[in-house]
């Protein structure tokens, strides 16, 4: 390829860099026997009844295109599930769109809304795709540091950032949060809504971890401010279906119609087999997340106690399957250096908090979507590392 052809490509695409989390994971995978606590996906298999539904669909030759928005029996099942679980009221014929995971959902939503010069407000630390998705569309992310307020955005901070950044067109909410595990109560969401209803902006609410909430019942922002909210959800985390790539985008009918135009261009439609698996999950998998959630909570409690015993400041997460911990005083405070030395010396992979943006510095993210054996091995290795490096610090 001629080297100068890159100069003809879209600058916002060329400027996108490979995400640090992928580079770090590649490094971890190159070390034989490394204990990996970075993986953000369930380590459970997809429930058997869902797999059998997909196999049946293949055997029955249900392998052709569906309509772009998704099979309408599936969309009706999604609407019923969301109503039963979260009191959401979406018309399956006009307000729900089936996407290739929440990742495609974010991509299609941002593409449908953002223009050059727009801004996207992102509470930080945050998952790593939102900022690049904004940049891709010529928009700029505005990161709001939540590290001093329990990793949650306050209405006061929201009001101030909207006042000083009038070009914000989207507020991106993700709760329960990746990477922090923080979530919002109904009262907290209502306080945010009081601020937001005064502004002509979209709330894009990524609630993919809604079924993995431990300390209180999950409340969807779609019930709080439905006229401004675009809800993202799916089956990846709740039903251990990451590889199936199924998500939903829900919102006002006229808005969903515009997003569907981008979705059509990107995918035509998502795979028919995934849709039949999703139909089974939404119709007959109401209780599938329960046993997984109980196991995650047990793992969380073991890891949480072990980390506190080692001296790590470790908030009790409200949901998801991550602990976002502060490196103790007396140890290396550069989280990237800490994580790389830990990987090299102890063969333990934990993600640096700064990979997740402003407010993540000096923190580490651990996933407890891991076996109890790996959790115990993690605590042993981290304990050995802390003892050795604490001694080194005291000797200096």
UniProtKB/TrEMBL annotation:
List GO BP terms, alphabetically. amino acid metabolic process
Keyword Methyltransferase on entry: no
For this protein, the record's Gene3D superfamilies field holds:
Aspartate Aminotransferase, domain 1, Type I PLP-dependent aspartate aminotransferase-like (Major domain)
* Record-linked PANTHER family: AMINOTRANSFERASE, ASPARTATE AMINOTRANSFERASE
What is the protein's given name? Answer: Aminotransferase class I/classII large domain-containing protein
GO terms for MF: pyridoxal phosphate binding; transaminase activity
Tell me where in this chain the Aminotransferase class I/classII large domain is found. Answer: 35-374
Q: Which UniProt keywords apply?
A: Aminotransferase, Pyridoxal phosphate, Transferase
Matching entries from SUPFAM superfamilies are given as: PLP-dependent transferases (SSF53383)
Cofactor section: pyridoxal 5'-phosphate
Q: Does the keyword Transferase apply?
A: yes
So what family is this one in? Belongs to the class-I pyridoxal-phosphate-dependent aminotransferase family.
């Amino acid at each position: 390829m001629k080297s100068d052809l890159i100069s003809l490509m879209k600058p916002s695409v060329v400027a996108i860099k490979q995400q640090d989390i992928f580079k770090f994971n590649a490094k971890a995978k190159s070390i034989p026997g490394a204990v990996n606590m970075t993986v953000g996906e369930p380590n459970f298999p997809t429930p058997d009844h869902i797999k059998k539904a997909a196999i049946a669909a293949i055997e029955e030759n249900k392998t052709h295109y569906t309509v772009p928005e998704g099979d309408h029996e599936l969309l009706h099942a999604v609407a019923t599930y969301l109503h039963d679980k979260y009191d959401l009221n979406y018309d399956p014929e006009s307000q729900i769109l089936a996407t290739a995971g929440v990742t495609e959902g974010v991509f299609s939503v941002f593409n449908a809304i953002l223009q050059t010069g727009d801004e996207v407000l992102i509470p930080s630390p945050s998952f790593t795709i939102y900022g690049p998705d904004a940049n891709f569309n010529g928009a700029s992310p505005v990161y709001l540091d939540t590290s001093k307020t329990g990793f949650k955005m306050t209405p006061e901070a929201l009001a101030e950032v909207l006042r000083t950044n009038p070009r914000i067109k989207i507020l991106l909410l993700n709760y329960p949060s990746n990477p922090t595990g923080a979530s919002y109560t109904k009262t907290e969401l209502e306080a945010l809504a009081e601020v937001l209803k005064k502004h002509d902006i979209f709330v894009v609410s990524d609630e993919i971890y809604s079924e993995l909430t431990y300390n209180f019942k999950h409340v969807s922002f779609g019930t709080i401010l439905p006229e401004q909210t675009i809800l993202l959800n799916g089956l990846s985390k709740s039903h251990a279906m990451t590889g199936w790539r199924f998500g939903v985008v829900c919102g006002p009918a006229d808005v969903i119609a515009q997003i569907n135009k981008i979705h059509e261009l990107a995918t035509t439609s998502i795979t028919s087999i995934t849709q039949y698996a999703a139909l089974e999950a939404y119709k007959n998998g109401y209780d599938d997340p329960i046993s997984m959630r109980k196991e995650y909570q047990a793992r969380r409690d073991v890891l949480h106690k072990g980390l506190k015993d080692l001296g790590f400041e470790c908030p009790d997460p409200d949901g998801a399957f991550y602990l976002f911990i502060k490196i103790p005083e007396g140890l290396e405070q550069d989280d990237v250096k800490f994580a790389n030395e830990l990987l090299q010396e102890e063969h333990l992979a934990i993600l640096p908090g700064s990979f997740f943006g402003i407010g993540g510095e000096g923190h580490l993210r651990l996933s407890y979507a891991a076996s109890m054996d790996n959790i115990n091995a993690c605590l042993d290795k981290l304990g050995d590392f802390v003892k050795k490096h604490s001694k080194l610090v005291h000797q200096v």
